[in-house]
Amino acid sequence: RFIYNKMLEDKIDYYQAHKMMLNTTPAQYKSEFEWLNEVDSLALANAQLNLQRAFKNFFQHQTEFPKFKSKHRGDKSYTTNNQNGSIRIEDGKYIKLPKMGLVRIKVHRQIPPVKVIEEDKVIGLDMDMKNLFTDSQGKRAGYPRYYRKMQDKLSKEQRKLSKCVNGSNNYYKQKRAVAKLHEKVANQRRDFLHKLSNRIANDYDAVCIEDLNMKAMGQCLNLGKSVADNGWGMFTSFLNYKLEDKGKVLVRVGKWYPSSKTCSVCGYEKEELTLDIREWECPNCHTIHDRDINAAINIKRQGLRVMSHEFENRGTHGDSSLILSTGVLLSEKPPLL
To answer: Across the chain, where does the E strand assignment appear?
Structure first.
């Protein structure tokens, strides 16, 4: 709370004086406030990240301007990171915390450890605008495209609405009719995505996907209607929390990784591959690839490499088979601390 408020105060004062944003880090305050050396440095770094996220949300018009934290309100909690076994539970009664040692705890439920993940329990998903996704085993989700099916009926009802006198009883009656159709489509989509994500979370220990910006894709590629229809963002959100609840992981592969252009057999990378090309032949090994299946296989392999790199950085403590704590969201880029 202190470092969050101090950094926020300095940013406000600097901007009022210079009309520029001040970049600060917790380390800059340790000489002035020596007691900050007694605090876990990663806890301070997480406070910095929280402040950065608050400013980002404000500038994206998602929230109001960041507020100072009060010691009289909110949860008595903080966020830190586990590095090389610096955080662990001992004897089911204590938790080892950096700079604090053993702290007595009450465990209300057991934390399921994640074992070394077997490759056949990992799946890669390539976002497919038509089918929602194609997986690394060659299966397609077969999304029913509820909005497209309802589009003719929606257009008919919306035309009726446009001809009604604004503010009349018929206008509000027709407006409710249109709203009910939209609600039905949303409920159908949500139901399908919940059931699909639940099945995947039950069957696999890790799911690898591309870290896509769906809003940008809808704007740049004129795919706005399809992006809104298949609900990829909603699906990945459902999948993320369902995996976390089961102690499993969602791995996000960088969006610039050439999953579609890389041959999954020999590793050859094709220079250009437009969206209209759904199959292509590798000039090196002459394998004919289905674009989506090939991409899903590459996403899975890259996800395995990301996990392997993350596990090496985290290290192990005690039982060598325990390599990952529950509910970890991995990314290709390590967090900025």
So the answer is: 88-90, 94-97, 101-104, 122-128, 132-135, 206-210, 249-253, 279-281, 288-290, 329-331
